Here is the input.
Amino acid sequence: MKSSSTFLRYGYLRVSYKELLKAASGFASSNLIGMGSFGTIYKGILSRGERPVAVKVLNLQHRGAAKSFMAECKVLRNIQHRNLLRIITSCSSVDNKGCDFKALVFEFMPNGNLDSWLYHESRNLSFRQRLDITIDVANALDYLHHQCQTPIVHGDLRPSNVLLDDDMVAHVGDLGLAKLLPEAN
Here is the structure.
């Protein structure tokens, strides 16, 4: 079966299971950057780019993972904001064993997540950085709640879902439990 690529919007990069497997060095533990309720996140480099990406591989054996994938795709297809984690593409395919495979590919955030900055002694945030991160998160939530055509509730906002780029700008991620609120209009 040939892989089908992203269905988010025209113009997104098309990737296959094999390309993601290669990008993340066979989903090696050395490329593991995080684990969540429904999947595992790996750092990788796509053959078409030099910049690293984060590949969220869904664990489809986990109850609710496929639903989370669809919810995240549905939410991400029509939103874009500087303080939301930018999706590059998605992949819905089959793996080498013929099993269903679903993954989301995001921009890589080199400074990790807010949780690692708040709760680890080796990292410190200045008052100014904390304030800027708080404002970034508030801007993302304002966008989701008030500026989207259909209001969106994140549903899982916590420090581990706030990611930090090179400049310590916060990006809210993991919209797998997000809810669209069409009745709010």
In short: The mean pLDDT is 89. Residues 68 and 99 are 18 Å apart (CA to CA). The radius of gyration is 16 Å. Residues 17-107 form a domain with the Phosphorylase Kinase; domain 1 fold (CATH 3.30.200.20).
